[in-house]
Fold each of these.
Amino acid sequence: MLNKLLLVTALLVFLPAAVTAQCRIAVAGTACVAVPKPLVPEPDPVAIGQTLERGKYSMLMNARYYGLPTVSEGWVYMRIEEEIYRVDWRSHEVLEKVTHLASRNW
């Protein structure tokens, strides 16, 4: 009987702490709210084959740090918003989206 009482007491003491621990920011008197992700994915900022305006976007340096293959054969990586694209250096034509190839430190 004493073991059951201790178990119930322990659950009552630690259960609220476990429930509130799921919230990233727990403020007294508030509850956690899960914000749903949109069902329709956001469109890409640029299209494959589009020619970029010179000087508008930044070139991604140190591609190996981000887990990307080394730049070669006249193309570079460009950061466009939060995405990485492989772009022809001479014509500034977008060749492909390569964000999925980047490591977690991107």
Amino acid sequence: MKKVYPDAAKALAGVLKDGMLIACGGFGLCGIPEVLIMAIRDSGVKNLTVASNNAGVDGAGLGLLLETRQVKKMIASYVGENKLFAQQYLAGELEIEFNPQGTLAERLRAGGAGIPAFFTRTGAGTDIAKGKEEREFDGEKYIMERGIVADLAIVHAWMGDHEGNLVYRKTARNFNPMMATCGKVTVAEVEHLVRPGEINPDHIITPGVFVQRIIHVPDAKKHIEQRTVRKRVPAAATGEEV
């Protein structure tokens, strides 16, 4: 089966539909599938539920879909960098399902592993537990969380081959691997696209069996979410800056 598509629009053709659940990889702005996000924006699909660690920032990442009001609901852990997100939520225009970060990661992993639900201590006795089944194990309270199976998963990989085997780099590995496994259809954008056999098997993080479609994005833009600087002072011994 040919998995490599010429561009994002063609890779998403026949997959996108109104009201679908999309799992979107990335951690902050690191490792986000931005080319695929822009293609989703341009498609005009609406009433989306999006599961992601965050909602991007104003003008980048999933923030692009908030600008066009294509997102109905976010399932996320952290949304503190997006003013538009806050405005839409406070105005009652956007639904939010907050998850502790580890719980969200496990919900995605469980969905990809065929596990419909699991119990965790995280959130027990808090607002997170409201409306959820609770049980006691070894004298401790646990709450039940459902696994997430997405209609579509979109991920960004540093390297991939034509069979869909993927390698992520550093922080981009935080959420992309779980996202890749939980989608009924998974589309990956890859910075370095190589032939089968060119990736060391021991370096493969997501096996190609989980990936149905691939696009090559050799010039992926790398955003910096928070740019910070510190004053440089001369070193005492050499006079060189440190």
